[in-house]
Amino acid sequence: MWGKPPFNIADNCAVDVRDLIAAKEWYIEKLGLHESKTHREEDSGRPFADLHISNYDDVFLSLVELEPSASAKNRHIIFFTKNLDKAHQWLAVRGVAVEPTSTDSGGNRLFCLHDLEGNIIEVCVEPG
After folding, report:
1. How far is residue 43's CA from residue 112's CA, in Å, rounded to a whole number?
2. pLDDT by residue (tens digit) across 11-45?
């Protein structure tokens, strides 16, 4: 219905979450990601889910459930896109609270969004 997300995950990354099931549902519904069919063990032994943009993609965003007393690690997650305006509109239409587009000190155009738990994800125009 929505088509493939207009952004990509450049490198494997992990996001700490308190509620793995709710977070996984949010990333699938709002960002159009898919749960990986591959099975692996997480080094920490904590529950996790690997998500990717397509079945042909070997780059993952891993959601890792925090232990009840643990604090989330502050990680900087970046998605890249060829068309920033299209990505902004695509996410906004899906109900994602996206910040206005801006330009950083290096001249890169970007915008940020927050996931269900407040984690920040930056969407930036692909370098080059």
Report:
1. 29
2. 888 899 999 999 999 999 999 999 987 666 656 67
